[in-house]
Protein backbone atom coordinates (compact mmCIF):
# COMPACT_ATOMS: atom_id res chain seq x y z
CA UNK A 1 0.00 0.00 0.00
CA UNK A 2 1.38 3.39 -0.97
CA UNK A 3 1.46 6.34 1.37
CA UNK A 4 -1.30 8.03 -0.60
CA UNK A 5 -3.53 4.95 -0.37
CA UNK A 6 -2.82 4.68 3.34
CA UNK A 7 -3.71 8.32 3.93
CA UNK A 8 -6.85 8.12 1.80
CA UNK A 9 -8.04 5.01 3.62
CA UNK A 10 -7.34 6.58 7.01
CA UNK A 11 -9.05 9.85 6.08
CA UNK A 12 -12.09 7.92 4.85
CA UNK A 13 -12.28 5.97 8.10
CA UNK A 14 -12.01 9.16 10.14
CA UNK A 15 -14.78 10.78 8.10
CA UNK A 16 -17.01 7.73 8.48
CA UNK A 17 -16.49 7.50 12.26
CA UNK A 18 -16.97 11.26 12.62
CA UNK A 19 -20.25 11.04 10.70
CA UNK A 20 -21.53 8.24 12.93
CA UNK A 21 -20.38 10.13 16.03
CA UNK A 22 -22.12 13.33 14.94
CA UNK A 23 -25.32 11.44 14.13
CA UNK A 24 -25.24 9.81 17.58
CA UNK A 25 -24.71 13.17 19.27
CA UNK A 26 -27.61 14.66 17.35
CA UNK A 27 -29.80 11.71 18.38
CA UNK A 28 -28.62 12.16 21.99
CA UNK A 29 -29.42 15.87 21.86
CA UNK A 30 -32.96 15.23 20.64
CA UNK A 31 -33.53 12.53 23.26
CA UNK A 32 -32.62 15.09 25.94
CA UNK A 33 -34.83 17.62 24.14
CA UNK A 34 -37.69 15.12 24.37
CA UNK A 35 -37.11 14.73 28.13
CA UNK A 36 -37.16 18.47 28.82
CA UNK A 37 -39.93 21.05 28.60
CA UNK A 38 -39.57 23.50 25.73
CA UNK A 39 -37.03 23.49 22.92
CA UNK A 40 -33.65 22.56 24.33
CA UNK A 41 -31.72 24.62 21.78
CA UNK A 42 -33.71 27.73 22.77
CA UNK A 43 -33.30 27.02 26.48
CA UNK A 44 -29.53 26.82 26.04
CA UNK A 45 -29.03 29.54 23.42
CA UNK A 46 -31.60 32.16 24.46
CA UNK A 47 -32.23 31.51 28.15
CA UNK A 48 -28.60 30.46 28.72
CA UNK A 49 -29.82 27.90 31.23
CA UNK A 50 -26.82 26.32 33.04
CA UNK A 51 -28.74 23.19 34.06
CA UNK A 52 -29.80 22.39 30.50
CA UNK A 53 -26.28 23.12 29.26
CA UNK A 54 -24.58 20.89 31.85
CA UNK A 55 -26.96 17.98 31.33
CA UNK A 56 -26.64 18.20 27.56
CA UNK A 57 -22.85 18.54 27.48
CA UNK A 58 -22.35 15.66 29.90
CA UNK A 59 -24.64 13.40 27.87
CA UNK A 60 -22.85 14.27 24.63
CA UNK A 61 -19.44 13.77 26.24
CA UNK A 62 -20.61 10.32 27.35
CA UNK A 63 -21.64 9.51 23.77
CA UNK A 64 -18.19 10.67 22.65
CA UNK A 65 -16.55 8.26 25.11
CA UNK A 66 -18.61 5.39 23.73
CA UNK A 67 -17.73 6.32 20.14
CA UNK A 68 -14.03 6.50 21.00
CA UNK A 69 -14.11 3.12 22.75
CA UNK A 70 -15.94 1.56 19.81
CA UNK A 71 -13.29 2.84 17.41
CA UNK A 72 -10.54 1.50 19.67
CA UNK A 73 -12.21 -1.89 20.03
CA UNK A 74 -12.70 -2.25 16.27
CA UNK A 75 -8.96 -2.69 15.82
CA UNK A 76 -8.94 -1.33 12.28
CA UNK A 77 -11.97 -3.29 11.04
CA UNK A 78 -13.94 -0.38 9.61
CA UNK A 79 -17.32 -1.95 8.79
CA UNK A 80 -17.47 -3.79 12.12
CA UNK A 81 -16.31 -0.70 13.97
CA UNK A 82 -18.93 1.56 12.38
CA UNK A 83 -21.72 -0.91 13.14
CA UNK A 84 -20.52 -1.36 16.72
CA UNK A 85 -20.22 2.40 17.18
CA UNK A 86 -23.79 2.96 16.01
CA UNK A 87 -25.26 0.15 18.13
CA UNK A 88 -23.24 0.82 21.28
CA UNK A 89 -23.83 4.57 20.98
CA UNK A 90 -27.58 4.03 20.79
CA UNK A 91 -27.42 1.67 23.76
CA UNK A 92 -25.58 4.35 25.73
CA UNK A 93 -28.22 6.95 24.85
CA UNK A 94 -31.00 4.58 25.92
CA UNK A 95 -29.25 3.76 29.21
CA UNK A 96 -28.72 7.46 29.95
CA UNK A 97 -32.40 8.14 29.29
CA UNK A 98 -33.48 5.27 31.53
CA UNK A 99 -31.13 6.54 34.25
CA UNK A 100 -32.74 9.99 34.08
CA UNK A 101 -36.20 8.43 34.39
CA UNK A 102 -35.06 6.23 37.29
CA UNK A 103 -33.57 9.20 39.11
CA UNK A 104 -36.82 11.06 38.54
CA UNK A 105 -39.00 8.22 39.89
CA UNK A 106 -36.84 6.75 42.66
CA UNK A 107 -34.61 9.58 43.84
CA UNK A 108 -36.98 12.42 42.97
CA UNK A 109 -34.56 14.41 40.79
CA UNK A 110 -36.56 15.58 37.79
CA UNK A 111 -34.82 16.81 34.66
CA UNK A 112 -38.01 18.71 33.79
CA UNK A 113 -37.84 20.58 37.11
CA UNK A 114 -34.09 21.20 36.89
CA UNK A 115 -34.41 22.77 33.44
CA UNK A 116 -36.90 25.32 34.83
CA UNK A 117 -34.33 26.59 37.35
CA UNK A 118 -32.26 29.62 36.31
CA UNK A 119 -29.26 28.86 38.55
CA UNK A 120 -27.09 25.73 38.50
CA UNK A 121 -28.61 23.10 40.79
CA UNK A 122 -26.93 20.23 42.71
CA UNK A 123 -29.26 17.75 40.98
CA UNK A 124 -27.88 18.82 37.60
CA UNK A 125 -24.37 18.09 38.78
CA UNK A 126 -25.46 14.67 40.03
CA UNK A 127 -27.17 13.78 36.75
CA UNK A 128 -24.20 15.11 34.75
CA UNK A 129 -21.82 12.82 36.63
CA UNK A 130 -24.30 9.98 36.12
CA UNK A 131 -24.22 10.62 32.36
CA UNK A 132 -20.42 10.54 32.33
CA UNK A 133 -20.29 7.42 34.52
CA UNK A 134 -22.69 5.62 32.19
CA UNK A 135 -20.54 6.70 29.26
CA UNK A 136 -17.37 5.36 30.91
CA UNK A 137 -19.08 2.09 31.94
CA UNK A 138 -20.43 1.57 28.43
CA UNK A 139 -17.08 2.50 26.88
CA UNK A 140 -15.18 0.03 29.05
CA UNK A 141 -17.74 -2.67 28.31
CA UNK A 142 -17.15 -2.08 24.59
CA UNK A 143 -13.40 -2.49 24.99
UniProtKB/TrEMBL annotation:
Superkingdom in the source lineage: Bacteria
Please give the start and end residues of each transmembrane region: 6-32, 52-75, 81-103, 124-142
Q: What InterPro entries does the database record attribute to this sequence?
A: DUF350
Q: Where in the cell is it found?
A: Cell membrane
Q: Name one GO cellular component term.
A: plasma membrane
Q: According to Swiss-Prot or TrEMBL, what is its membrane topology?
A: Multi-pass membrane protein
Against Pfam families, the record matches this protein to: DUF350
Q: Which UniProt keywords apply?
A: Cell membrane, Membrane, Transmembrane, Transmembrane helix
Key word Transmembrane helix present: yes
Where would you say this protein principally sits, based on its record?
membrane
The UniProt similarity line reads: Belongs to the UPF0719 family.
Full protein name: DUF350 domain-containing protein
| Protein source organism | Nonomuraea cypriaca
The organism's taxonomic lineage, starting at the top: Bacteria, Bacillati, Actinomycetota, Actinomycetes, Streptosporangiales
